[in-house]
Amino acid sequence: MRRIAVCPGSFDPITVGHLDIISRAATIFDKVIVLVSFNANKKSATFTEQERIQMILEATKDIDNVYVDCFDGLLAEYVKNVNACAIVKGLRAVSDFESEFQMALVNKKLYGGAETVFLTTSGENMFLSSSIVKEIAYHGGDISGFIHPAIISFVQQKLIHKHK
Ligand code: PNS
Questions:
Q1: Given the residues 18, 89, 148, 158, the one annotated as active site
Q2: Does residue 44 have a pLDDT over 60?
Q3: What is the DSSP secondary-structure string of 25-63?
Q4: pLDDT tens-digit readout, 113-136
Q5: Which of 29, 73, 106, 131 is most buried as measured by Cβ atoms within 10 A of its Cβ?
Q6: Does 129 reside within a domain?
């Protein structure tokens, strides 16, 4: 049986922290679907769905068993539809824990066929978030250590354009 995992997130944009979790998940599962999903608590995204998908495709193109998809609905429903056995999330710090724990319990209640698996973020990415990357890029700072090389200029141009 092929073991499928779904790695959901806003990915607005994908960072090296996300990539670290995705590439480690790809060594554990047969297939990893990186799912652009929608967080009702986040008002509006900076990047469009298509832009986020394109950036993930570029950043993950060297990992054979990683696929990209987008779903504007309940994660539990998607996970069930694709017959995934796990939802993979990265945990950065204690501050992530409460909401992630809550989401894991809700997702389990909505669909009991998959487990949420938490991978601890690598030490060097503890501080990293899409919001921090956008803040730095917005002010014209160097984001090269935080974003895959293939998408740096796209992220910079989009945010600097907003700034001017
Ligand atoms: O990158 P984020 O914003 O922390 O990711 C959160 C996300 C998008 C994974 C979460 O909001 C989600 O799963 N959204 C899909 C809708 C859903 O299933 N909501 C209930 C989860 S408890």
A1: 18
A2: yes
A3: HHHHSSEEEEEE---TTS---SS-HHHHHHHHHHHTTT-
A4: 999 999 999 989 999 999 999 999
A5: 29
A6: no
